[in-house]
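Researcher: Let's try something more involved. This one mixes different molecule types, so please make sure each is placed in the same coordinate frame as the others.
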Amino acid sequence: MNAPSLTEAASLPLREARQPSSKVAHFGPEEPLWLDAGRMLSPFQIAYETWGELNADKSNAIYVCHALTGDQYAASTNPVTGRPGWWSSIIGPGKPVDTNRYFIICANVIGSCMGSTGPASTDPATGLPYALNLPVLTIGDMVRAQAMLMDRLGIDQLFAVIGGSMGGMQCLQWTVAYPERVFCALPIAAGARHSSQNIAFHEVGRQAVMADPEWQGGRYIEGGVRPHKGLAVARMAAHVTYLSKAALQRKFGRNLQDREALGFGFEADFQIESYLRHQGSSFVDRFDANAYLYLTRAMDYFDIAADYGGRLADAFSRTKTRFCLVSFSSDWLFPTEESRAVVHALNAAAASVSFVEIETDRGHDSFLLDEPEFYAAMMGFLTSAAKARGLK
Amino acid sequence: MNAPSLTEAASLPLREARQPSSKVAHFGPEEPLWLDAGRMLSPFQIAYETWGELNADKSNAIYVCHALTGDQYAASTNPVTGRPGWWSSIIGPGKPVDTNRYFIICANVIGSCMGSTGPASTDPATGLPYALNLPVLTIGDMVRAQAMLMDRLGIDQLFAVIGGSMGGMQCLQWTVAYPERVFCALPIAAGARHSSQNIAFHEVGRQAVMADPEWQGGRYIEGGVRPHKGLAVARMAAHVTYLSKAALQRKFGRNLQDREALGFGFEADFQIESYLRHQGSSFVDRFDANAYLYLTRAMDYFDIAADYGGRLADAFSRTKTRFCLVSFSSDWLFPTEESRAVVHALNAAAASVSFVEIETDRGHDSFLLDEPEFYAAMMGFLTSAAKARGLK
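Model: All components are placed in one shared frame. Result:
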């Protein structure tokens, strides 16, 4: 076995991928994870964080699902970036997801790079990083692993499952795969399947990563390199899709960056260019390129009706969960009509469902931003569900 | 001077860039092109095609402006791809741009790679390809060169200037820079400036090209290589923006490519993936990477009101041109509101203007597709303008 030699820049995320700062649940040979690919993953581990206290009858647990490039540090400082958690404005004492009231769990999805088993983890068969030898994973696999974590924590039924974007997909998957285990669900800025356009943008990103010669067929860790340039381009392309045309125009317009006039060159003349370049370069410092391939693939594969002959309502036929779907009016990645299609299917399945479209020009990323109406809707729904559940 | 050594795949487009199959107008040291960058280009050449006959008083000439990756072969077979011209359904006997009636000119824009001077042309100062030593060009520079070509052909006033996308930008620029030389104008699927989102997508493409190590700081021709992978990724990202979400869903949806079930790998599972990969790989066989950088930059720099204190109506204050603007309802790159902003400015300048929004789900690329309503609008406008101009 070659000892991986790493550049300084690569070492922090990779250390976190293997020895996370958070809690870790290990699943040994006796507890394999059966995958949709028809293979199994074993051993594997899940890195997770919790906030608040689990009550005596274990009825106040909320599972928070993270998005593509998110992690378990929803409300804790991220050890790689040193920045506050990505939902620290939503999770906390007195906040919409109230840590005084609920016990909140957030785990890094399998396939990612913040401590749960993913392509940077060691393949027991070779002693080397899995790279592309890790089976391709699905949203179903992620949620199956999360259910095993809930078993480990002794939680039979979650009071709520909440998540935006890829987190919203997991949230829907929870309600379909484990209808008895989810009292209420809040899928945000998501849909029942990944659209053709969304697959297209993900494919652009994957091709950008794989075009980088430092990707080395996925075996860059052993080579002591990382496909920084390709991953940065992938992130830049994706980032444009997270914001609305109107918000980009409002925030950046055609404003120039640190200059009085056009430079007549290929440096970043416009603020939007230097903003995007920054998004690309800061992303590669915290994320693993192969994990990006695996997680985009999992989203592309998501189509919750596929196992039900394409009839979405049938997927929810056994549901007893109370739903609240949230969309954002300027989200063109997961437009309101995709949430509405889920609402219609839930109606057809006679489920309890409410639906809120938040008016905002901030696009898909609104679920990560301070949107008072969104917070109010979330808090109202959880409070009412908590009453129905008999929580204090 | 090093003789450029080229791979087989690179040779056809490069030969065309230097010795085009079409007509060529050469402009020697006595006729430099003055550039917005404050520099001059000399010598330079313009490769162009014509169809139909110029009438005795030279009043029936129509100038067709091509889009980013278009060329002068609007209605002739493309010598590189062997395919029919990109507007062969629009230009021809009895077609909307009727070759029995009009004399039609289309020239490759400067900065491109089909025979007009661009980054692959030889820099007289070094004997090597210009690469990034070519000054950054603007839409204004392109149109100034086109006006010099009209001088050469002895055409004082064009009956019409027509173009879509980047061609629509040139069309607007013609009416502002040479108000007396354009009797009527048909800017299609364009706007008065490039939006922040559009700059963002172009920047993603440029970064993809420049991230490719075979780009070699732009000097790949001398190196005998070409940044195929980076340029293919750039094209894939751009191509997604040319189509609407609805059209992608209708055409490709989540259909699988040559397989019964998901492959659980990173090959092209979905038709949309293999379609995009094909778009990328066929593009690099016909286009020069540096030309892609220059032309995207020219579009980004386009802001017709900038020289008029941001007051778009002032840009048109001297206009006597009759305008017909065309937009497509599902075009999210140049949405209808951008054409409407031009219409409002023209109204404020008391210009003669009509405006048609074509209902279609086919997105920005609709201007290249068979859209009967679009053809009818174009033909109706030209026929009416021809009558006003006294053309037979």
